[in-house]
Amino acid sequence: FAGAHLNAAITLTYCLLGNLPWRKFPAYVIGQFLGSFLGAATVFGIYYDALYDYTKGNFTVTGPTATASIFSTYPAPYISFPGAFFTEFLATVMLLLGVLIIHDEKNNAALKGTQALMMGILVLGIGMGMGMNTGYAINPSRDLPPRVFTAIAGWGIDVFTAGDHWWWIPLAAPTLGSLAGVLIYKLFIDFHNQPIPETRNEKEQTVVETC
């Protein structure tokens, strides 16, 4: 992967695949959640005066002066519950497929040094193409901690009950989408990849050791 795990769904998937030791899973997820929580707190601190002026101190999740969606995702009024779940699921499938393609050394991976740029373009494309329905959480680590923060900071328990108790969708759908994305990639691409050929130096070293 890219060396920095920012998505709990992807971290879980990599542990299940054996690409990341399970002993690292708690530390990675705690770091992700703590960073996201502190990020939300920082934004709140910087823009507190603007938020207070806009809402007159009445922080709400819905209504004409709703501001909770600044921090976490909420479904659009027109989207059905199954439609919202499918949107998050499919968006995460596309994310995983893109991530694996960008970093797959056996399948013409992105040029060294361009992976971060390609990842940014990938997330931007998913947001522009699939973000209208749900705000494209595609990452439990970026949605739940800010939601908890807003519950503490004045928005209250509504952050968990709004959208017909929407809060669990950004946790479950990305996790399932991540697993489905890896399965699709394994079945249709990775299992058909050719082994990475040995370099000349590796071959020479093998010959020397054999002799």
Automatic annotation (TrEMBL):
Keywords: Cell membrane, Glycoprotein, Membrane, Repeat, Transmembrane, Transmembrane helix, Transport
Membrane topology reported for the UniProt record: Multi-pass membrane protein
Cellular compartments per GO CC: basolateral plasma membrane
Compartments, record wording: Cell membrane
Catalytic activity: glycerol(in) = glycerol(out); H2O(in) = H2O(out)
Keyword Transmembrane: yes
One Pfam match: MIP
InterPro entries per the UniProt record, alphabetical: Aquaporin-like (IPR023271), Aquaporin_3 (IPR023275), MIP (IPR000425), MIP/Aquaporin (IPR050363)
Superkingdom, taxonomy of origin: Eukaryota
SUPFAM superfamilies recorded: Aquaporin-like
GO-annotated molecular function: glycerol channel activity; urea transmembrane transporter activity; water channel activity
The UniProt record lists the keyword Cell membrane: yes
Residue ranges of the TM segments: 27-48, 79-102, 114-138, 165-185
Similarity annotation: Belongs to the MIP/aquaporin (TC 1.A.8) family.
The protein's name: AQP7 protein
Species of provenance: Trogon melanurus
